[in-house]
């Protein structure tokens, strides 16, 4: 194997790694939003508090997705 083939393999592994890393935040967003909607349905008077907490959690989950994307491009 020469260096060109190794670089191609590493690039392909980075792409596959990011694809797998994107699953975590996707699942996390689904759970986060679903539980927030469930909480609002159960206690509508706490809607504003739950919504603001959801947006903070959403930011953390999106940071993880972007971090995975950047690391896939750096490697």
Question: Describe it for me?
Answer:
- By secondary structure, this protein is mainly α.
- It is elongated and about 60 Å long.
- The mean pLDDT is 84.
- InterPro entries: ATP_synth_csu_bac/chlpt (IPR005953), ATP_synth_F0_csu (IPR000454), ATP_synth_F0_csu_DDCD_BS (IPR020537), ATP_synth_F0_csu_sf (IPR038662), ATPase_proteolipid_c-like_dom (IPR002379), F/V-ATP_Csub_sf (IPR035921).
- This is ATP synthase subunit c.
- It comes from Rarobacter incanus.
- Belongs to the ATPase C chain family.
CATH third-level topology? F1FO ATP Synthase
Portion in helices: over 70%
Strand count, sense and barrel status of the largest sheet are: none
Order of helices and strands: HH
Q: What is the CATH homology-level superfamily?
A: F1F0 ATP synthase subunit C
- Helical region count? 2
Percentage of residues in DSSP E strands = under 5%
Unreliable residue stretches? none
Highlighted features:
75 residues; mainly alpha; F1FO ATP Synthase
Question: What topology does this entry show?
Answer:
Layout lengths: L2 H40 L4 H28 L1
Helix pairs in contact: 1-2
Short description:
Its main location: membrane. The chain has 75 residues and is mostly helical. The protein has helices at 3-42, 47-74.
């Amino acid at each position: 194997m020469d260096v060109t083939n190794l670089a191609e393999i590493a690039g392909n592994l980075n792409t596959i790694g990011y694809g797998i890393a994107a699953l975590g935040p996707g699942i996390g967003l689904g759970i986060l939003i679903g539980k927030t909607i469930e909480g609002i349905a159960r206690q509508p008077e706490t809607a504003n508090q739950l919504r603001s907490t959801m947006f903070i959690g959403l930011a953390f989950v999106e940071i993880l997705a972007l971090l995975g994307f950047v690391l896939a491009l750096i490697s």
